[in-house]
Prior knowledge:
Strand content: 5-15%
Distance between the termini: 86 Å
Helix content: 25-40%
Number of strands: 21
Largest sheet: 9 strands, mixed
Structural class: alpha+beta
Number of helices: 15
Amino acid sequence: KSTYNIRHHQIIHHEEDIMAPTVAAPTAEMADLSVSTAPKGTAKRDALVANEIAVQSLWESEKAFECNPSYDAETGEKDEKFIVTFPYPYSNGHLHLGHAFSLTKAVFRAQFERNRGKNSLFPFAFHCTGMPIQAAANKLKSEIEQFGAPPKFPEEDPAIRAQMEAELAAAAKAKADKAAATGAKAKGGKTKLVQKTGTGIVRQWNILKKMVPEDEIPQFADPVHWLMYFPPIGVEHMKRFGSGVDWRRAFITTSVNGYYDAFIRWQFNVLREKGKVLFGKRNNVYSIVDGQVCADHDRSEGEGVGPQEYVLIKLKVLAPDHGQERHAKVEKLLKRVDEEGKKGVFLVPATLRPETMYGQTNCFVLPTGEYGAYYVDATDEVFIMSARSARGLSCQAYDAANDVYFTKEFGKIECLETFSGDELLGLPLKAPNASYEKVYTLPLLTISMGKGTGVVTSVPSDAPDDYVALKALKDKPDFAAKYGITPDMVEPFEVVPIISIEGYGDASAVTMCEKLG
């Protein structure tokens, strides 16, 4: 029988009604454990931690989790086996709470199967392969070379820091606003990094400073040092977590581990012999700095981004015909190309819709954009485009079957001249397959120099942006004059119907713009 004392919150047992259970005497090891009765403070917690360490030491000394072949004492048959694995945590820092949460599932299952009498094995490894560690080491090396060790970063000046943070916040907001305007999934003005740290200014030195003694940080400029430093810490943390791993069966990846490297080589050799993998080249995201393909999880940013195939449309630059002084550099380039016997100078817009080129009425550039004239060895031509797109072109094959690239040297392209977008405005061009014999370069203020080539072809019949921009130059003479665009560069050029869409006619962009006002 029992009664419950509400005031003191305790159960009082009547001794005459209770039969005392038989309790086995504790083992010597367990007898050493203690439970504190301290009413307040951290004493209870400290006692639990002390007991935890004592038990883990016992596991260690008894080799509780070392899994060896075992046999049934009566039948001589092998005991039933069980193995659990855990995705290798990446070893560019300490293990975190996310690892711990996922790890509990593996630990529980391994222990559960062991308690059921199975020969339970839990091996472990640390992932060191790929570019994150290499990229972090490169970044640290660059910071040391630029700012010293320990470094003196410019943002240590409060005024400079405030300016840098404002610029980063403005860039993040502009990106979010643009995504929202285009109908893409809108995101907040703050990036995850800003939300977590309060700032978008990130230095590799400061990241490491939170994990390692500052005087050791310069050693991390060597990527191999990361492999020697963090995995042993990970092992200790895992032991404290009570993970139940057979640490004889633990390793790190990469060629630093000769055994693992041999295993991976064997895998690929076997797969190649069976015709399951091929060696060759394909379009991919490539890091020029590191000299190798940069796979999805190897990137510090841009995860999920893949190669985008564009078609370059060659708009041949004709001799300037309006006597504008801003075309002096273009005229000089045309003369040089002619004297050297090259095949011409071309503005090269990138398009996803080459079939619409029959409807070209003009070409657009960003007045404030920076462009270059780049020599393309494979075609003996000069392409005017952004530096970013020229660099990308220099890494691509012109004739993949014969291993011929656009440039003689992979990743390098010769720049013959540089131009502002304004210096390209008003240039006459010959557009391939267009209805007009000659079209002109016009201003478009919404061009992104980080997309395509920075040069945009115009098909106003089916592209609303193109139609609105061309119409604005026609309807607003002052706006056109601001950019040196004369009436004859825009007035004669009417929309060219090329595609008929049911319900929208043969000029869908015009139809929708007029319908929406």
